[in-house]
Structure formats: structure tokens, C-alpha cells
Specification:
144 residues; mainly alpha; two-stranded antiparallel ribbon; 2 strands; 50% helix; globular
Length: 144
């Protein structure tokens, strides 16, 4: 899992771990210095990646991310995203892949520990949808 994917998973769970991770204190909440700027930076990076992809429509994801033929604007958008996420998470670029993996495992462990405290979700039949779709309903039952 990449740092970008882990960042997205944390945000979907309501965790904003980027602001305090440089000090080693990854916590949830939004009342920390720099959090709004971090969100704006991450959003801008995501938009730049999407715009770079759109510029090559109708290319498939497989075409866009072929390591041999990946287009420079898409590669640059991802490189910028990596820079921003690394600055948010550790305050600098990673020295090497080993350091990146160590941080990913650390953040993954914190994320999964935090997930155990969230309310359990259950899938229920949504009677309001016309296509018989499923809806997620949060319950208050603690996890075992």
C-alpha cells in the first residue's frame, strides 16, 4: 500500500494523521496547526493527478500507468503528490524505500488500531432506492 492510499483510507475513516505525524503523535481531529493547509495541499495534488489523467482521455488506467510509457505530466503530478505527503507525514522526503515502508507499517498499525474503536457498520436493504441498492447503516455496537 502506498502512502497516498493510506492517507486516503485514514481520511475516509475520519482520521487526519498528517498534521502530527512528524512528532510521532498521529491522532484524529482537525484543531491542529497546519491541518487546513495540509488538506488543501492534498486536494490540489489529487486534482492535478485527475487533470493529468483527463488530458489523455480515452487512455485506460493500464495505459496511463505503464512504467515504460507513463506520460511526463502524470509522472510529475504523482511526484508532487509524493513530496506533499512525505512533508505532511514526516516533514521531509524519505531517505529510501526502507524508511518509507517502516512509516507505512507504523501508520497502518495506528489506522487499524483506531478502526477497532469505530462503530461497526452493517449493510441493510434501503427501501428508498428504486434499483434495490444497498445502504450502509452505522450501529453503535462495540466491536468484540
Amino acid at each position: 500500500m502506498s502512502l497516498a492510499l493510506l492517507d486516503v483510507k485514514c481520511r475516509l475513516m475520519g482520521l487526519d494523521v498528517g498534521a502530527n505525524c512528524a512528532s510521532g503523535e498521529c491522532t484524529s481531529g482537525t484543531a491542529r496547526h497546519g491541518t487546513e493547509q495540509n488538506k488543501a495541499d492534498r486536494t490540489a495534488c489529487a486534482e492535478n493527478i485527475l487533470l493529468a489523467r483527463a488530458a489523455h482521455f480515452p487512455a485506460t488506467i493500464a495505459d496511463l500507468y505503464d512504467p515504460e510509457t507513463m506520460l511526463e505530466n502524470l509522472r510529475a503530478a504523482h511526484a508532487r503528490n509524493d513530496e506533499v505527503l512525505e512533508r505532511i507525514y514526516i516533514g521531509r522526503r524519505f531517505k529510501n524505500d526502507t524508511e518509507r515502508l517502516e512509516k507505512l507499517f507504523e501508520l497502518h498499525n495506528k489506522m487499524t488500531a483506531a478502526a477497532k474503536t469505530l462503530p461497526k457498520a452493517s449493510i441493510v436493504k434501503d427501501s428508498l432506492t428504486t434499483d434495490g441498492g444497498l445502504a450502509v447503516k452505522k450501529t453503535r455496537k462495540p466491536r468484540p
